[in-house]
Amino acid sequence: MAKPKKQPRPKAETPKGFRDYFGEEVTQRTEMLRTIAGVYHRYGFDALESSAVETVEALGKFLPDVDRPNEGVFAWQEFDEGGNGDWMALRYDLTAPLARVYAQHRNDLPTPYRRYAMGPVWRNEKPGPGRFRQFYQCDADTVGTASMAADAEICAMLADTLEEVGIPRGDYLIRVNNRKVLNGVLEAMGLGDDQAARDNVLRTIDKFDKVGEQGVRELLTKGRLDASGAFIDGVGLSDDQADPVIAFLTSKAVDTAGTLANLRIAVGDSKIGADGITELEQIAELLSAGGYGPDRIVIDPSVVRGLGYYTGPVYEAELTFEIFDEKGRKRQFGSVAGGGRYDDLVKRFTGQEVPATGVSIGVDRLLAALREKGRISAQAKGPVVVTVMDRDRMADYQAMVAELRNAGIRAEVYLGNPKNFGNQLKYADKRNSPVAVIEGGDEKAKGIVQIKDLILGAKIAESATLEEWKERPSQFEVSRSDLVAKVREILDSQD
Description:
single chain, 40% helix, 18 strands, 495 residues, alpha+beta, 8-stranded mixed beta sheet
């Protein structure tokens, strides 16, 4: 009889494109989400938590390469005897679910409906450095009003949010553009209803940051050589047709009035282009009235995000301070949030146009920025550790830790094998604990405890001379009744 084949053990590894988050990373994200939610709530937005799973039909096809239901999203088909079960998918953003929620519950919701939502989203895309298939988004949207006041408010709220989480004024800039202005430029080019040509132009405009004014002109006309020497075919437009695009991309002036004047030249006689410029003018006036000047929020035609998705104003929050990349080169940190007006999304469900605008903040990007600025540490302070000198006196140690916790101090009793005291201190070190509490039999008899300042002790051990060691003791003997007070004193001195 054949011997049963042994089942191989599963590999202990995360799926490709995913990662695990430990202690301080989770704590920092939770704190950031709490801070952002506080700003959103202050602006009058209500929380919404929708399902992480939607039907593929409800999600729609807003991701690239979604000719099949399982492209771009993590999707599966529900079991059905006839093979006709619904296709389900993990949400790829928080906006498409909002459109479904609003369409489904619109008779019960106020108009406009102002909501914020936070949570993980999933993209079935090729992972790369710093690019994961699961990440957090933090959105705020207003559904049901076409007023530019809603867009201005979102931009103002975004500025307040960045400052609230620790990005100082001067280290960020929110840039605002309008899709209608770009549509006006396309009309001025004489492309008419040639959707293929319009799409080619949009894709070329999106490369402006990389190739600059001359590169865009070459790509719109005869083509250009890239950095590797390979020739890239151009769209085939004439120089006259390319002129409105160049005028649009280079229309940023020293002030808002100058930028809007340049945009009027770029759109020519286009009505939709003129409408877009009027909307930008209204947004700028509203922001100025609220005290949000061009040092925080600026009209900038070079913002061309989500051109196939947004229908009006678009905005992007960029961090302007410099960092060093992995090769030691200086570069700006870049975008951490973006959004815009999307008046067609709810229409998919209702058949009627419902105006909407909103923003999405990349929480993980913001956390990375704060670490770069030194505003938060990658390693948090751990709990106070009450060591165990006598396992038969566990009740005494639990009483100590209860006193510390009741005083609002994070603390734990060592629950490993207490036989080797050195291992207890190693454990405290691995936990990045600030303080260790020690009470053996002798201390118990005298009514005292030993309190060890682990942070100071580590600093002294690194560089102190013997004399300095004696002058700056890191271990204190105090009355048992003074346990909480002394621990708090040490913790305050470490901050």
